[in-house]
Amino acid sequence: MKTVLYKANTRGHKNHGWLDTHHTFSFANYYDEERVHFGALRVLNDDIVIGGEGFGTHPHDNMEIISIPLYGDLEHKDSMGNGSVIRSGEVQVMSAGTGITHSEFNGNSDKDVNFFQIWVFPNKENVTPRYDQQKFDFFEQQNQLIQIVSPNPGDAGLWIHQDAWFNTGIFDKGYSFDYTIKEKGHGLWVMVIEGDFDVEGQKLSRRDGMGIWDTDSVKITAQSENARILLIEVPMYEVV
Fold first, then answer.
1. Does residue 165 form part of some domain?
2. The 12-15 sheet, strands edge to edge
3. Would you say residue 240 lies in a domain?
4. Mean pLDDT score across all residues of the chain
5. C-alpha dihedral sign at 124, 34, 13, 223
6. For the chain: N or C, fewer Cβ within 10 A?
């Protein structure tokens, strides 16, 4: 088993006033040659946008983009004609493919929105752009991993153009489980959303991240009440 640990306070950070953002991996003006990506996982940004502000229209191509609001409402508009609000408990996926433009704004004027913005390298380029979002009940299903993203359109949750699986859950203190890696050559990125966990003997706290590979399974134990975690399994090949 191989591991890499990124404590929350070692992430890239920039406060723009309207946007307070932390970068797990190199992004924008934050660059660390040791933290460019974890296999096919390219970006994991922890963004807080104040009321009435947001990201203006900007382009993407050949990237799978996943947005997970943690609290507040995120308003989305894109060049495919989609306009929606993504709320806490919902997940959005977007395949940029041959190219799209979109904007993201705080859907409220009087409170912040906090969301994870995640980019995954696709396993095929220049696909037709697509958009989808779904509501999940992980707040009501304690002590269960809920699959929110997979490579398969027929599976539970949303799907993307990559052999990647996203799972999340909220757990009672002392609850323990093993995550089984689904495909040989894959790794698991563990991101603690809230609370404390023990991951293969390593204590992780709020917003700590840990990458694990060269193993068949990962043992995880919640060490606080209502501890919330995000697990991202991705291929570990080198991306060029």
1. yes
2. 12-15, 19-23, 41-49, 113-120, 64-71, 90-95, 130-135
3. no
4. 94
5. positive
6. C
